[in-house]
Every structure is written in structure tokens, then in C-alpha cells.
Write a structure and sequence with these properties.
Blueprint (H helix, E strand, L loop, with lengths): L9 H13 L3 H8 L10 H13 L3 H14 L4 H13 L3 H14 L5 H12 L3 H14 L5 H7 L7 H12 L6
Helix pairs in contact: 1-2, 1-3, 2-3, 3-4, 4-5, 5-6, 6-7, 7-8, 9-10
């Protein structure tokens, strides 16, 4: 399904909203989005920016509605699925986020953000073996990635930090990691 082009002046408001977001001002970004015409507000590009604005404001309930609309309008794009899972995660609906991400992973196996987020969710759900599996899959997809350094920076992966320390120690001693 081809998406129609966003025309002026709406495209200018959208670009301004993106600019405000890049400057870290979600309030001004929201004000720009409110200037967009009614029908154009449901364009996928506008919805993605709107999701980013409300996510930046940590309005996770509204972000959930926007993400669901994105998945309905563009089910063939990974962005909506990832936004939906992230919104569900932030509204403490980890089981539903997990389910949607597994569906997304089957539809978009080349998108590295999906296995990474699955690893984070698995940790939060106490599934450390699953978390390790998904993080390893992510690591294989991202060229030049240092799995330990990335995992150490993300507190959502804290439950498996020791496992990575052990695996790296075994590799450095010449034994295969288990």
C-alpha cells in the first residue's frame, strides 16, 4: 500500500516537530504536530513522530494508542511493532510486549532492535537463558558490536551481567563459552 505524500504546510510542521525533538523539546514538537491538518495527522510518518513526542513525555498510555494505530496502518513496517512493544513494556504489560515482539521477529528477522529488546524483556521476566539467546542473536546481527559493553550499559540486562563476565573469561582462557 503506497502512502500519500505529505504536502505543504503540513510537511513543514512535521519537519519542525522533528527539529524540536532533536533539540530535546517535546513540548514545542507537540505544538507543531497540532498544526498539522486533521487527515494528515494519521499519516504513518506523523504518527511515528507523535509517538516519539508522547514517549519523550513518558505518556505511555497515549503512546500505546498511537503505536496500535501504527501497527494497524502499516503492519508491514517494523517501527510500529517496536513502538507497540516499548509502550506495552512501559505500561507494565511485559507478557503482551513479549508476544508482539515474537510476532515482529518472525516478520522482520533482519531488524536487530527486536532481538535486543527481546533480551531486555526476557531479563525482566526472569528468563535469563532466553535473554542470553536473544542477546547473542542481536550481537551476531550487529557488526563490530561488543556484547559485554553494550549489555553493561543497559540496566534492563543487569540479571545477565555475570553470565557475560563468565563467558568472556572462558573465551579468554581458550575454552568455548557455554
Amino acid at each position: 500500500m503506497a502512502t500519500r505524500r505529505i504536502e505543504a504546510p503540513d510537511i513543514h510542521h512535521l519537519n519542525s516537530a522533528i527539529g524540536w525533538l532533536e533539540l530535546g523539546n517535546h513540548t514545542e514538537a507537540y505544538a507543531e504536530l497540532e498544526k498539522i491538518s486533521f487527515l494528515t495527522r494519521y499519516h504513518p510518518d506523523v504518527l511515528i513522530v507523535r509517538w516519539k513526542v508522547v514517549a519523550r513525555a513518558k505518556d505511555w498510555v497515549r503512546s500505546l494508542d498511537i503505536a496500535r494505530a501504527l501497527v494497524r496502518i502499516t503492519p508491514d513496517k517494523a517501527t510500529g511493532w517496536i513502538c507497540l512493544a516499548y509502550s506495552l513494556y512501559n505500561t507494565k504489560q511485559n507478557g503482551e510486549a513479549w508476544s508482539h515482539l515474537l510476532t515482529a521477529e518472525k516478520r522482520f528477522p533482519e531488524i536487530s532492535a527486536i532481538p535486543y529488546f527481546l533480551a531486555c524483556l526476557a531479563c525482566q521476566m526472569g528468563k535469563t537463558d532466553e535473554a542470553t539467546k536473544w542477546l547473542s542473536r542481536w550481537n551476531g546481527m550487529v557488526k563490530g558490536s561488543d556484547m559485554k559493553a553494550t549489555a553493561r550499559k543497559d540496566p534492563r540486562l543487569q540479571p545477565i551481567w555475570q553470565e557475560f563476565d563468565d563467558a568472556l573469561l572462558e573465551e579468554n582462557e581458550g575454552r568455548p563459552a557455554s
